[in-house]
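Quick one: co-fold with dinuclear copper ion.
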Amino acid sequence: MTPSPFRLFPERASSMAAPVDHLFLFLCLLTFCISLGVAVCLIYFALRYRRKDALSKGAPIEGSLTLELTWSTIPMLIFVLIFYWGAKLYVALATPPQDALQVYVVAKQWMWKFQHLGGQTEMGELHIPIGRDIKLTLATEDVIHSFFVPAFRIKTDIVPGRYRTVWFRALRPGAYHLFCAEFCGTNHSGMLGAIIALPEAEYQNWLQGGKTTGSSAAEGEKLFAQLGCNTCHLSERQGRAPVLFGLYGKPVPLRDGRTVIADDSYLRESILVPAAKIVAGFEPIMPSFTGLLREEQVLLLLAYIQSLGGEQPAPAATHPELELR
Ligand code: CUA
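Sure, here it is.
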């Protein structure tokens, strides 16, 4: 498809692009109509009720309850509609579908690195199948970057020290621009990438061709052994450290009485800053891995821990994006 030079919007290439545009267009149209209404009234009243001679006086005006109620109620209903529409869309965008295909993304000055669960890694390009929900777990190695794919209408800041997730479903094959949308240093403007959306069969071909190492989980297991994690985190409970089998996505009771879910963020924190949350029944004896592991290595460890069983951390609700058209 050749993009028209007069096109106002980027291509709508994801399942959420149309719903996002509809809300945006609605807001533009509403703003335009109200501005127009105000301008027309202003001009009309200025002409109609202008002071005609030096002696004329304005007529006394009593309040009107009906008028007051009308101009309070109608805007309120409009605002409630905007809130409802926006909130629904936001929740849909923020809630990755349960069975989404997961890809890890690491941003660093000034490149994008993608890590597929099958072990394929890519720089600057992400190959994904069309028609399937893709969930990205994003981390940054250094400063704040922002993952922005206009054609998919997704944009998320990636903040050091925490994971962000974003999801999309590409509708058509193609190469879509990926921008960094946060000024992140000298070559920020060159921090570009592409999302390559392929039909399922071509994607499968690509997966086979792009494979150079074991799966992320297998690489993570190697790293786990190299770092000596397995000397304490044994497959059976032996007292020194929590068992990691079946842990992923499950609730974990802490020593201070709280319970947390063993999601990516919790596991990452427990690797890098083990003392932050101590599991009930254990001592804070694990050494910190801050500075010893790169974000992509942490992600490999997470892929390994995820492969040991457990559940997908449950999103709050199923995404209602289909009703939103
Ligand atoms: Cu990364 Cu701008």
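If it helps, The domain at 216-307 is CATH 1.10.760.10 (Cytochrome Bc1 Complex; Chain D, domain 2).
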